[in-house]
Amino acid sequence: MAGVGGGNDFQWCFSQVKGAIDEDVAEADIISTVEFNYSGELLATGDKGGRVVIFQREQESKNRSLSRGEYNVYSTFQSHEPEFDYLKSLEIEEKINKIRWLPQQNAAHFLLSTNDKTIKLWKISERDKRAEGYNLKDEDGRLRDPFRITSLRVPVLMPMDLMVEASPRRIFANAHTYHINSISVNSDYQTYLSADDLRINLWHLEITDRSFNIVDIKPANMEELTEVITAAECHPHQCNVFVYSSSKGTIRLCDMRAAALCDRHSKFFEEPEDPSSRSFFSEIISSISDVKFSHSGRYMMTRDYLSVKVWDLNMENRPVETYQVHEYLRSKLCSLYENDCIFDKFECCWNGSDSAIMTGSYNNFFRMFDRNTRRDITLEASRENSKPRAMLKPRKVCTGGKRKKDEISVDSLDFNKKILHTAWHPKENVIAVAATNNLYIFQDKMN
Amino acid sequence: MIHSLWMNDQMLFSCSGCVSACTLVSFSTVLGCHPCFRLNMFSKGTKRKFSDGGEEISEETLVGARMASSYSLQRQSLLDMSLIKLQLCHMLVEPNLCRSVLIANTVRQIQEEMTHDGSWQVVTEAFCSAGQSPSERLVATEVLCRSREQDAEPKLFSVISYEGCREEEVVADETLCSVSVSDAVSNVCLAGSIGQCWEKSDVETDDEALEDSRLGSGEDEEIDTEDEPSREGPKTIGQVFGTFEIKNSSPGPDSALEELFSDVDTSYYDLDTMLTGMQSAPKMGPYDLLDSLAPSHGSSSIVSAPNCRSDLNELDHIMEIIVGS
């Protein structure tokens, strides 16, 4: 059966799953962000407990039957701790909202991780050698008696077991009154932006005590607040351009060369509303939960509650492509409003060549759309399909009438099993899907 | 009405209306159309009678009316649900701003539509007479009163402080609201004016309205209604005081003032002060005034019997001269 993301012989197969199998999921283990680095060699996840786990891909084995290298744990560290804001008597959650990698410039790896209030720059470095033969101290660290030292020797580097260390190099704090929802590294690799509900700040990676406020949509009177910022991203090539999305379903593109405060947008993207489908939930489902530029920089993709839209940056009045993720939920909006599922923020991602896009849904389903062939596929991340290299079977949701075999009806969907975070390897057909506390890795199987 | 509240792990709920609330969306679009699509569900040409009237209502109208009423039932349920969500938002440690804004916008939308329909008045009365808990009624009546008083853009959101949970204000409002429980009509106005004290910006006229409705109009009548508020008074003030930091420390430069009033029972004046201090920008803040009065007056002294009417008037008069208001 033809798949999505590659040629006609393309098939997605299970590769690995990380995380506990227990039915009882600890809140702290819930994965809150997933991100590949620029080469795809490293895969980082953040969880609600403030921890970051980095997986590294093994070198491809000589055995051809194995599809690709596997991802194994490379480093684990506690990025953020729960904090208490004494002024407001509020607890600041340690949940990692976003991780963004910096491009690799030397042997070490750098990433930015953020919770609701503080962004941290982490350096992950390897140590596989240690010096032996110090003059002034013993092998176990005790100082040697100076009178016993009769000769001088040069310490020698000896190999040791690989140790991966993560150390916080910069802490960017106290710049956000509201909850940070996005961070994005600029293409100049020197600055990055951080966005909360009402403001966007521009930082320099070297400077932690200052940031520039570039967008501020806080009204003078908070009573008049009707719109918040939901996501922001820097353009992949033009370091002066960034976009931010709102809870009203609009996207604004701003040029930092125009003014210091980019409250006036350069471009305004909004699709006119379809009056026939208007309801009390229209605004809520139009709220954009994620915005991502394509790798080419020509397009951007937005995710709202029921669909994914691809926009051409040169056309503001409507998207060029719209993909329905789970249209069968449209008749269930009232219940989804009641149980708060309507506020779930799904993310979306491009593949390396921008030919396919992926996003999550409920019941541990995730959806992929091929932009060229217009084919789409629904797959499920579950332990049942977790035999090595097992091919994933396409899933289908039955919307009404007779339910066919293997189809699942809308009312049987498990709304607690939601896939909010997915990531696509920048170069290959390898995807990482976060299902609550488990991380699934799927790969293609070339026929 | 919807029977089960939001529960994250519970998808199902029951509704007493004749159709499930899931189809609210479809109703909103259908309502604009002629309702005769349901005619085929009934036998042709049958006319039914309403129990109260001798006139025969045609089937179409009956169906239309039923649809309209279930639509408004659904809409009402949605409004209730949204208001509850907003209030629960406030009880959380730090409310999710995006979610709050979206729910508030939904409430505003419903309210606008209901205003157009003219069904807003009905709802207002229903709210006031229903036996709801003070906190629920707080938000509800605030929402309703606001739109009634101002026909223009109703500022629903003054009640919901985006600045985060302001516990002092929440407590104060609840207790003040709970004072005059009996009169349904005055409740509405009371809640409306109280709601405005959420805002930092001052509402001078509402101060007076509040005081008047609470303590009676004019100083003379102040005492007549003493009996009623006095029961609630101590509790009210105690609670309100409880949320403010009261400086019980040494008098300092105001010792002269304090000597002047040391033999005066200032219990009711404190209440007065509290109210004015809270709702407007006073020349002397409530803390200042408290400092200037006998520092030994804690909340316990407030509970004294209402036998100081003349003293209170005098005190009032004197204070006015001193403060120069």
UniProtKB/TrEMBL annotation, chain A:
One of its GO terms (molecular function) is protein phosphatase regulator activity. Keywords: Repeat, WD repeat. GO terms for cellular component: protein phosphatase type 2A complex. InterPro entries: PP2A_PR55 (IPR000009), PP2A_PR55_CS (IPR018067), WD40/YVTN_repeat-like_dom_sf (IPR015943), WD40_repeat_dom_sf (IPR036322), WD40_rpt (IPR001680). Gene3D superfamilies: YVTN repeat-like/Quinoprotein amine dehydrogenase (2.130.10.10). Belongs to the phosphatase 2A regulatory subunit B family. PP2A consists of a common heterodimeric core enzyme, composed of a 36 kDa catalytic subunit (subunit C) and a 65 kDa constant regulatory subunit (PR65 or subunit A), that associates with a variety of regulatory subunits. This is Serine/threonine-protein phosphatase 2A 55 kDa regulatory subunit B. It comes from Triplophysa rosa (Cave loach).
